[in-house]
Amino acid sequence: MRNVIIFDTTLRDGEQSPGCSMNLQEKLEVAALLEALRVDVIEAGFAVTSPDDFAAVKAVSAAVKDCAVASLSRAVKGDIDCSWEALRGGVAPRLHIVLPTSPIHIEHKLKSTREEVLSMAAESVAYAKALCPDVQFSAEDAGRSDRDFLVKVYEAVIAAGATVINVPDTVGYLTPGEMRELITFLFSRTRGIENVCVAAHCHNDLGMAVANSLSAVEAGASQVECTLNGIGERAGNAPLEEVVMAIKTKQTHFGAATRVDTRQIYRASRALCGIIGITPTPTKPVVGANAFAHESGIHQHGVLQNRETYEILRPEDIGIPANKMVLGKHSGRHALTERLAELGYSLSEEEIEEAYERFKLLADRKKLVSDDDIIALVSEKSFEVSGGYKLERFIVLNGSNLPATATIKLSRDDAEYEEACTGDGPINAAYNAVNRIAGGEFLLTDYSIRSVTEGEDALGEAIVKLRRGHESATGRGLSTDIIEASIKAYINGVNKITAI
Ligand code: KIV
Ligand code: ZN
Questions:
Q1: Amino acid 323: pLDDT
Q2: Relative to the CA of 12, which ligand 1 atom is closest?
Q3: CA quadruple 247, 251, 256, 258: dihedral positive or negative?
Q4: What is the pTM of this model?
């Protein structure tokens, strides 16, 4: 059985796409989820692009112990030095160099020539290799590059010390057959290829990123690059959960396996939704809300007789527990601790105590507390901003012929603040009151609300996106009352922006 290396780029290719930016604390949280998932490599960022990116790569490198950590660089010394400076404190650093190789990129983006690209590739890899034993080279837009030229470039970087050669389909242009042919061609023609790891990095512009990644594996690639929930530039990258579950479900077919702990997938996917405020479409394979739902009577009947009639994946394999035992207000600390462990959390005593306090508050409002509620409760702690505003009390008045008014009381440190405002509906009125307290011109650019579970007393999760000048943040709030969830989400966003 071959091992397929999972290289996760949620924090680099994913994070650089619109609406997916994360602050340092959020990146560290995602890195911890990826480590728990047991991906092999975490690409933590592109260190040279900003001081924040540099700080994130450095912090992730210091925190992660069980995966390699990579930082992207262009094929220039300044970028490589910067990546190395951010990575060097880590347990297993990887320098990742990207250089375009397709005619269109060489001519219009680099304004250069093939000869120059060839020497830049070899020189940058040699330079990186002198700093770090693990060097990955990516031929950007390999999918549209001239094959003979690609072979020359890969041979040059292998000779210069690259340990991984990556074949990116940067614009999502290839078909699975073309990807298979390309990888097969490279294996048959590139001197030294047997000594390095061959990777595929597929974008989803034509909806073929997963199929192309799997074709690459069939043709002998031993690393696949992907992101949680498939976030990424334009139509995204190959979704980690789909690639990993395809390999696991059809292990005999691929003759391959990954080391990913698939039972962490659901939790990681949900946590990412909360952090970036983007929920996958319900029919999204593996992690969409309908991925395991059976609506039609014929299907339901079949599944009740034997699950395998209509299910090729088992929900528990991705961490949706089969045991639907719910907790309630009479459940004790012990029951919650056990449930948390079954859901894949290993929390400290202090974190369990904190989760228990939140659980009791929720159980007072809601008869039955489900696994989804528990997952939401635990993640609530991680998105709070310490030292920020807290909601103490709110009153909203609204009606068909009444202007909506809201009175909001917030606290911060030991001080309390109260304001009343009108608005275009109760939520707008409440947000105006928070703005008045926080003294900032916050612009609401997105708002959504969903119920975490079913039923009348379901926990609601509000997600807002806020902007103030150039700063933006995603805020999240949970409550069984949707107005309260919405206000908490707004305060969370304001706290994040004011903490920047
Ligand atoms: O899509 C791409 O080509 C990339 C490279 C940096 C690998 O993201
Ligand atoms: Zn990419």
A1: 56
A2: 8
A3: positive
A4: 0.88
